[in-house]
Amino acid sequence: QVQLVESGGGLVQPGGSLRLSCAASGLTFSSFPISWYSRAPGKERKLVASITTTGGRTIYADFVKGRFTISRDNAKNTVYLQMNSLKYEDTAVYYCNAAGRAPDNEYWGQGIQVTVSS
Length: 118
Fold this sequence. Notes:
By secondary structure, the protein is mainly β. Helix content is 0%, strand content 50%. The protein is globular and about 40 Å long.
């Protein structure tokens, strides 16, 4: 079965850093563009960053541009989100998403909590 497992979240002070990982299994990882989404308390889920299958192109939401970096290691079936200069507003549950070419070929991780607090 397809499984996406996020790790690396936790509690961090404002201005600090975290690196999230998303480990995939049960799919051909290198065939999937990967995205990170976040959902803050009481808010809708929103796109944070995306990366193409080869890692050749990335996109970022305006609110994380210059602070976050998405990357992938297809040999390890893993995608990363390096989060620097964290702000209180970054507090959210972060989800890994693998989007296939077919509408029903889409998978989500269970989410992982990131809390930015002093």
